[in-house]
Amino acid sequence: MSLTLHYHPLSSFCWKALVALYENGATFTPNMVNLGDPAERAALLALSPIGRFPLLRDETRGETVPESSIVIEYLDRHYPGIVRLIPDDPELALQTRLRDRFVDLYVHLPTQKIVGDRLRPADRRDPHGVAVARAELRSSYAILDQQLLIRDRQLARGGWMMGEQFSLADCAAAPALFYGNKVEPIGEGHRHLAAYLERLKVRPSFARVLKEAEPYFGMFPQES
How far apart are alpha carbons 39 and 83 in whole angstroms? Predict the structure, then answer.
C-alpha cells in the first residue's frame, strides 16, 4: 500500500490528519507509534529526525511528509477525493489556511500546554503558564464564536468553518476544540462555537476518529 500514516491514537494533530484521510476514503496503512519503545522510536527517527507525528510516508512517490497541515495539503494535491479540503479559489484557499493556522496556534497549542503541565511532576508545574494558556483559549473561543455567528447568518443554518464546504480548517478545528473543551470548557457564552463542535463530533470522519480513540481515553491526563 502506497500511503502509511505514522501516528498515535490520542494525538490531536494526528486526529487532524486522520479526519482528512477519512473524509475522502483514502487507502492507507495506519502505523501506531509508541515513542516509549526504543525500536519504534528509532524507526520514526529514521524517517524524520525531528521524531514527531503525524508523519505520512508515500512509497509510490518516494515522499515523507511531516506536519499535519502539510500532510492534508499533500493529500489534497496528490490523492484528491470528493471533498476538496483546500478550495480552488485562491483567496478562499488563503483564508482557509489562515483559519487553520489560527486554530493550531491559538487553540491547539494552548491546549497542549495545559495537558502537558498535567504530566509534569508536582514540583515542576507551571501555574502561570497554564493560566496564560487558559486565557488564550477563552480569547480564541470568543473570536471563533463571532466568526461562526457571521457564517451561520450567511448560510441561514449551521455550516462549517469556511461555509458550506468542509475543509482543512475543519480538520484542524475538530481535535483542537474537542480537547480544548475538556481542559477549558467552551461554555454557554459561545453557543455558536459549542454548536459547531457538536456538528463536528457527528461528522462521519471525526466520529470515526473518536470511536477508534475510545480505548485509549483512559490515558488522557485528568486535572489533579
Answer: 37
